[in-house]
Predict the 3D structure of the following.
Amino acid sequence: MRLKKYFLYVILTFVSVSMFTSCSSDDKEEEAITPSLTTTPTDVNAKASGEDVNITVKATSTWTTVIDDKVDWVKVKSSDIQAGKLVLTIVANTTLESRSTNVIVKLDNTDLTKPIKISQAAATASLVVSPMEVVDIPAEGKEYTFTVESSAGVDWEYEIPGEQQSWIKEKSKTDKSLTLVFEANTGSQRGCYIVFKDKNKKASNFNVKVIQLKSENFDPNDPIQMGYTLQGSMKGSADLVGKGYADVHTYMRKFGWDYSEHPNSSTKDHNEVDHIETVFDASINQYIFRFSSHASSALDGDRGSMNDRMRNEMKTQTSAAWYKLNGNWGESQILQWKFKIPKGYRPSTSFCHIHQLKAQEGDNGAPVITISLRGNNDGTNRRVQVIHSLGSDHSAGTKSLGTFVDNVKIEEFEDEWVQVSEEVKYDHHGKYRLVITRIRDGKVLIDNTQNDIDTWRKGAINIRNKFGIYRSYGGSGGQITNNIKDETIDLADFVIYEKDTNPSPAAHD
């Protein structure tokens, strides 16, 4: 009986323990399946070019990836639930706007979700043109097609500089190409940059360099072929032979010059003889003007003032009718003229100018450009100089070059006709080129170009051109101290060309 009770106790105990153990085990199992879900990373910043993104998913059960049906630029590449790996493909963004969306990872059979924020940068706007340059366009002209590749959102256009539009013409234009016709070139080599640009200002400009070769018949010394227009010219005349200064003045005025700054213009000066005459010169086969200046047989002055200098000059008129012969703001001119210095010409250490470019109005004290003869007072070291100077106002920020041509020996010029060509851009950042060629043998005596120099004067309307003899006594007091003597200079064949003509010349600072 005891044995039966013992076995019953054991059985009850076992059952009790089993039940307890079973309950304890169920509790642990219930704790292990508490739903949990994490994703790494939770924010993704994708490149505009697109990429694959790896996401780590930790979950207590299976999970599902949910992407909005309206989002076509994020796709599931692969999903390994057992390994907890999710790979998303971010498609390239070809738009010029950034974009973002949320990808949802959802734990199955629960309401538990985790968002992954996907952000993608906007595409960089691009504009590329091919070919990038055309630098050998034949002079006879040719048609070229440019291919344009642009990103979405770019609305391109092109621009040809205004002065080049006369020879570059559009033939056709599509979304992907531009065909231009380059017309025949009869002049010098020419070129420019054609600018392709985005109307929306998203893409950077693309510059295409184009150069057209010069014509085989192009003469680099022909102003007309260089785009200049003849504005005026003057030669001497047989009708002036034996005539006085007043007749010369009247004659010159018909062509836009005048002869009004000389000793005969004042009763207080040396006016007993004329200081200009017209003679025929067989070597250049034309009538020329011969200017005389007296320092030994008599003493010339400067229009009645006989203190320290003498002047005998002609110049362009500055009335509105003759603006075209003068340099006005923004214009370019070519001045051509001839001169001959007699053998034995004696300059000095003081000034002896034969040509000036000088403002009529405004800051008109110092000339812009001067061609001057210089030497020692004993007659040695005789030379030709070219001088640049600024006015009293230096606000343009450029500097005076001073004497930028020197030590060209006068002996190269004596008793020889020379052809002068000056090319001038009238601007605070202008240009001056001087070429002097000996006519007899074609020898170039001076060829000098100066860029970015101030060729203007504050308040000026006209930069006039002056020619003749303007020289110093060497000191004040009305006495010659520098050993100068009577001299002459021959001048002839004045021609003026112009381009970029200022239609309404006015005082300009």
In short: Residues 189 and 214 are 4 Å apart (CA to CA). The chain has three domains: 37-120, 127-212, 229-499. The chain has a mean pLDDT of 91. The domain at 37-120 is CATH 2.60.40.10 (Immunoglobulin-like).
